[in-house]
Amino acid sequence: MKLSKIFSTTTGAAVLAVSAMATPFAVQAEASGNIGVYSAYVLRGITNDMENGNTAVQGGLDWSSDSTGIFLGYWGSNLDYTSEVSIPTFDDNGNATGSKEGCVNAGDCPENGFENDFYGGWAGQFGDFGVDVGLIYYYYLGVMESNGLEIPVNLSWRDLTLGMKYLTNDVTWGNAGDIYWTLGYDFALPADFTLGALLGYYTYEKGGEFIQTSTTEKSSAFRHFDLTLSHPIGETGADMSITAIFGGEDRFGNDQANTVILGVSYGFDI
């Protein structure tokens, strides 16, 4: 996550899936993987300062147990910034007090970072209704004070899904207590096309360790609306996609630009 930026929805990122855990009894376990290349990496609608404004390579591994509902997985992406440089620090009177690891601007940083997402939990299906709950730990290489833990909960009915992610600790991209809400629906279209719609909304906790309360900070805000059109690429097992992102606001009321993301992804069984 970018230093002092806001975590947004993952455009072109792999869908969180599932994996098996060892149990005292026999379970039916499945494993799969995914990899994709995208024209940019936008998280949760923050288009003005993307996680990667260049080509993003993303992928993950998922293991699941149909018999127990338990899942585990990993997802990662390259970033086009880092914060591992030394910058000076000053006291309230403007006197130099030393230095710390950080980054004033993305261009000041000599190398790129990397995002790692580790997740797990339980998922169940009850007729047309589904539920899953778990944990997601975000671990960043080359980016300071951004490792965070979220509690995700998703409720679904057929192709409609209501989700929330509750942030448990202060990081540079959010405060403990921030909640990211989503409402998504997938439409099956003729000729094997699929249209996915995703609405993102945030409720904010003010006064964290890294993001201090200000007069412009909002208690809640509309973040983004995404429309993704996808289609299989022949018999290759790969899919192509185009996502139109209609930007909302960040937590300080800054309007986010509209943008378009192109991508190619491939999913496979292990």
Written description of the protein model:
The chain is an all-beta fold and 270 residues long. It has strands at 29-38, 56-65, 70-78, 85-90, 96-102, 114-126, 129-141, 148-157, 160-167, 179-188, 194-203, 220-232, 238-247, 259-269. The chain is built from no helices and 14 strands.
Can you describe this structure in just a few lines?
The strands form two sheets. This protein has a twelve-stranded antiparallel barrel. Strands 4-5 form a two-stranded antiparallel ribbon. With 270 residues, it is mainly beta.
What order do the helices and strands come in, and which of them pair?
Blueprint: E1 29-38, E2 56-65, E3 70-78, E4 85-90, E5 96-102, E6 114-126, E7 129-141, E8 148-157, E9 160-167, E10 179-188, E11 194-203, E12 220-232, E13 238-247, E14 259-269
List keywords for this structure.
single chain; 270 residues; mainly beta; Porin; 12-stranded antiparallel beta barrel; two-stranded antiparallel sheet; disordered N terminus
